[in-house]
Amino acid sequence: MEAGTLTPAGERSSALHRSPAARLPDRALRWGLTALSIGVIVLIAYFFIRLIVESEPVFRQVGVISYLFSADWVPSKELYGALPLLAGTLITSAIALLLGIPVAVATALFITELAPRRVRGPLTVVVDLLAAVPSVVYGLWGFFFLIPKLKPAEEWFADTFSFVPFIGGTVTGPNYFVAGLILAIMILPIASAISREVISTVPREHKEAALALGATRWETIRIAVLPYARGGIAGGAMLGLGRAIGETIAVTLVIGNAPVIGDSIFQQGYTLAAVIANEFGEAASNELHRAALIGAGLVLFVLTLCVNGVARAFVVRAERGKRPATGMAA
Amino acid sequence: MSALAFEPVSARRRRVDKLARGTVALLTGIALVPLALILYYLVKQGIGAVSLDFFTTDPTGSFLGDPGGIKSAILGTVLMVALATAVAVPVGVGVAIWLVEYGRASKLAHTVRYFIDVMTGVPSIVFGLFVYITLVIGGIGGSSFAAWKGSVALGLLMLPIVTRSAEVVLLLVPNSLREAAYALGAPRWKVVFRIVLPTALPGIVTGVLLAIARAAGETAPLLFTAAAVNATAFDYNDSMNSLPMLIFKNVGQAQDRLVTIAWGAAMTLVAMILALTLLARLIQRRSRLS
Asked: Which residue of A has its CA nearest to B177?
């Protein structure tokens, strides 16, 4: 039967007409998928609420302010001041950014602007492979290779530049610097990938204009490429920061796990994520201790939420114009 | 045209150019050093542990005697990641389909995208905490620590990776394909399952493989969800061993033989993950889209 042929007297037996039963799978798919998507939102919201509820005992007992800003973390005496953990998280992440971002931007510039076309693909793959190494393997390597090999260099550095604040003093094996260095390596792939993406959106005309005016390759990068890509690079750095803040196992193995604020970057400390990983086993039976650790998780969650929010804003703004607006399909 | 119009680049500018380009190249070189060092040390330290027994016996847990192999850890990792994949992929791809085919630019779709973004940024240990709070404390399913709870934590970690990569490829499916199918009278669900999904499949598979590679290497979500045992276990209601957990436990031991096991396990884990990653890239390159 030919579809769409007119049949007498208002009977619509064309291909355009479907019986309610035939339309059922369509409805089921639509509402099923919608429910699934709403489920994701509900799930995350539920988790967030449960985090707050479960950590509430520690905030009630200790107080939010003294939980965040008191420096004594002694679970055996029921003292829960997360400042050393917060400080450790921020110090190691800052070191990671300082060491990692310049290198990440350099690799992105080299791959997109300077490298011969032949090596660009392989080089991209190799940099991305850094992301394939698991956190625990970075920790293993840092523990048995980086810590012993770096110690003499760190001691020399601490001696020579002892007049610089936060540098001099005794050097312990596991310390903030080693943790920061490992984090720098771990955030390199993501920061490099975002920078690469953003740098490749720099309009060809901008670069050609600079070159036509007689700029050298470096001057072109400096006056045409970097200013255009600045926002996106900042976004990539923030995404890297988000990763660094939440990184657990690698840091746990190389930071020393001492709940103190070290005097220099070559002393041991602790981070929010590491304390959760280490103390959860013993905390299962002690409600307050458990709440304190879940509180650390809550702080971590909020911290990464803020950092990633800012990062997304940067990246989206930098990539706008290149990417078709989502939802234009279909 | 007068040659005078072009002033040669001054020696100073040329020097700066060379210096800056050299620095950029040097920093790129430095970026490659850690990967080379890590791979070198993995092979150097790990190769000594590897033998047939290494892959076919369970860890003994003995401190002084024979430490055994890593069979239970490999099986545990495969089993837990398999369950996580079975949960995360349908949900993740489903959400991506909804975003591209139904939600599009609606307010709800923006909210869903925002929450998926939030999930991407959540540290893996916090996913472990979520599962601990909701499933372990209450002892859901009878036991406190269980492999399936570890799988849930890994699945939560995989979900945003799967959704984001699937959304990107689904958006790349040409509208003309959808329109052609509609014009032939195909209902919407048929268009989704027969036209859109098959076209986007290679890209989706790439995303799934990368998510699996990510989950296989995670330790933090398993610490207090699946915990770890030495013996091989096939029951999802029991604790299960896993490669990352085995490595993490053994690093802290002041026992060379246990540390050697950790290196061997790390080498095995990295080899598995690299294979998955390279396979994902290969499929991506073969794909017609993108």
From this structure: A330
Stronger pLDDT, A55 or A320, i.e. the higher one: A55
Verify whether the Cβ–Cβ distance A107 to B28 is below 8 Å: yes
Q: How many residues does chain B have?
A: 290
Question: Is A60 part of a structural domain of the chain?
Answer: no
What DSSP string runs through B215-264?
Answer: HHT--GGGTTTT---SS----TTS----HHHHHHHHHT-S-HHHHHHHHH
DSSP A174-211: S-HHHHHHHHHHHHHHHHHHHHHHHHTTS-HHHHHHHH
ipTM: 0.91
Q: How far is A186 from chain B (nearest CA, A)?
A: 10
Best CA proximity match to B237, nearest among B116, B128, B123, B143: B143
Domain at B117, CATH number: 1.10.3720.10
Which of B12, B16, B24, B41 has the most A C-beta neighbours within 10 Å, making it the best mutation to test the interface with A?
A: B24
CA dihedral (B164, B168, B173, B176) positive or negative: positive
Is residue B161 included in any domain, yes or no? yes
CA dist B154 → A115, A134, A281, B129, B268 (Å)? 38, 14, 20, 12, 20
Q: Per residue in A3-48, pLDDT tens?
A: 444 444 445 455 566 777 878 888 999 999 999 999 999 999 999 9
Q: Looking at the domain assignment, is residue A17 inside a domain?
A: no
Average pLDDT over residues A288-315: 91
- Shortest CA gap B205–chain A (Å): 17
Choose between A168 and B182: higher pLDDT: B182
Residue B2 falls inside a structural domain: no
What confidence tier does A249 reach under pLDDT thresholds 50, 70, 90? very high
Q: Which of A222, A273, A330 sits opposite B100 (nearest CB)?
A: A330
Mean pLDDT check: name the lowest of A189-203, A277-291, B39-53: A277-291
User: Does B16 lie in the same domain as B135?
Assistant: no
How far B280 CA sits from the closest chain A CA (Å)? 12
CB contact under 8 A, B133 and A140: no
Residue range B213-256, pLDDT digits in tens: 999 999 999 998 888 888 888 888 888 999 999 999 999 887 88
Write the residue in A135, A248, A301 that is nearest to B122 by C-beta: A301
Burial class (CB in 10 A: 0-12, 13-18, 19+), A288: middle
Among chain B residues, CA nearest to A29? B189
Contact A329 B17 (CB under 8 A): no
B78 shares its domain with B186 = yes
Beta bridge partners of B59: B68
User: Among A158-162, A186-190, A320-324, where is mean pLDDT lowest?
Assistant: A320-324
